[in-house]
Design goal:
Layout (H helix, E strand, L loop, with lengths): L9 E3 L1 H6 L9 H16 L2 E5 L5 H15 L3 H4 L12 E3 L5 E2 L2 E2 L3 E6 L8 H4 L15 H26 L17 E8 L11 H12 L3 E6 L5 E6 L5 E4 L5 E5 L5 E3 L7 E5 L1 H6 L9 E4 L6 E8 L6 E2 L3 H5 L10 E2 H9 L6
Parallel strand pairs: 1-2, 10-11
Antiparallel strand pairs: 2-13, 3-6, 4-5, 6-7, 7-15, 8-14, 9-13, 9-15, 11-12, 16-17
Helix pairs in contact: 2-6, 3-6
């Protein structure tokens, strides 16, 4: 359950990563310290910074720079990988095509998903079938992004092992039928600055943005994430992720309705938990409402990686978590793939 937090905690996960494949890792005092911090952060804020993650800072910067270079391309070039239902909702979306609660978001993006072969998940998976749409320019885009996805996947798996222990379960409690074969989503996002004009945008896009400036320049509406964990790699010099209380960058909302800034800290990820982990924890952990605001004149990019459950996983509160609630089951069963597809089919105006 979220609290009246005023800041987002920092957690050094390096002791956990060093022991994450040891089934007895919870007995290590350094790992136990990390587990306690994860538990506190998931209960109180639903957000935390991750340092000591082992992913090279050079790669964190490179994927952001590759993303920026793509968004600097002419609009016609970006449209070569345009997202449509036929592409499995993979590819480029222009300003205003992504919608949150009926309101267009002021960002452009490339959406990528774990690739899905036809028929593997039956009718449930059919809308998401396809391969990712990578741009030809920059030429190393595909290779570097796939390397990044692999490293983020491994990092999330290890953090979740710590969270499994925090919930009172075994190290692999959240693997197997829950997330032993995890789905993933990655969004490469560009947020125009205040009174921004991009060489690659068309006139209607610019007008749309200027109108949005009057509405406090909210670039991504308030929302929670769908899955288990999200890793946000944001521009170091421009804050943007907001909790519902302050107007600027990435922002997160506390229980009093105040927005708390997730100020960028070089070399770290901002990590938050999603709806599926909230259900698994029976509400003990909170998928906190957050939004993105860029009040800077600078164009801002962010690479968001979403670590999900198995696509077909049926998610309901863990027995160990129900025991902590006097046996009460606070959430009904949800199938992750159905939850994702229902969101994707209503998230875009194309």
């Amino acid at each position: 359950m979220a609290t009246d937090f005023k800041s987002i905690p920092m957690i050094d996960v390096s002791p956990l990563l060093a022991k994450s494949d040891d089934p007895m890792m919870a007995q290590d005092p350094d790992v136990s310290s990390v587990v306690r911090k994860l538990d506190q952060a998931c209960r109180e804020t639903g957000f935390f910074y991750v340092k000591g993650h082992g992913i090279p800072d050079s790669l964190l910067k490179e994927v952001k720079e590759l993303t920026r270079k793509f968004f600097e391309l002419p609009y016609e070039e970006k449209l070569k990988i345009k997202m449509t239902p036929a592409t499995g909702y993979r590819g480029y979306q222009r300003l205003g095509e992504n919608v949150t609660k009926g309101t267009p978001d002021m960002h452009e993006a490339i959406d990528c998903y774990r690739e899905m072969k036809p028929g593997v998940h039956g009718a449930r998976g059919q809308p998401m079938e396809g391969s990712n749409k990578w741009p030809a320019n920059p030429s190393n885009f595909n290779q570097r992004m796939e390397e990044y996805v692999s490293l983020c996947t491994d990092l999330c798996r290890k953090i979740l092992r710590g969270i499994s222990v925090a919930l009172g379960g075994s190290v692999d409690e959240l693997e197997g039928k829950i997330a032993g074969d995890p789905f993933w989503v990655m969004r490469l996002i560009g947020y125009p600055g205040f009174f921004w004009h991009s060489p690659g945008s068309n006139a209607s896009g610019v007008v749309f943005h200027l109108v949005h400036v009057i509405c406090l320049n909210e670039h991504s509406g308030a929302h929670t994430d769908y899955g288990l964990l999200t890793l946000v790699n944001q521009d170091d010099d421009i804050p943007a992720l907001q909790e519902p209380s302050i107007i600027s960058s990435w922002v997160v909302r506390n229980v009093s309705g105040e927005w708390v800034w997730a100020v960028p800290i070089s070399g770290t990820f901002v990590c938050n938990i999603g709806d599926m982990l909230k259900i698994l924890s029976n509400g003990l952990y909170e998928s906190t409402l957050h939004r993105v605001i860029n009040s800077s004149p600078k164009y801002r990019v962010c690479v968001a990686f979403f670590y999900e459950t198995n696509f077909d996983a049926a998610i309901e509160p863990l027995d160990i978590c129900k025991q902590n609630s006097d046996g009460t089951k606070n959430f009904e069963r949800a199938v992750y793939g159905e939850h994702l597809v229902s969101k994707v089919l209503t998230n875009f105006v194309m």
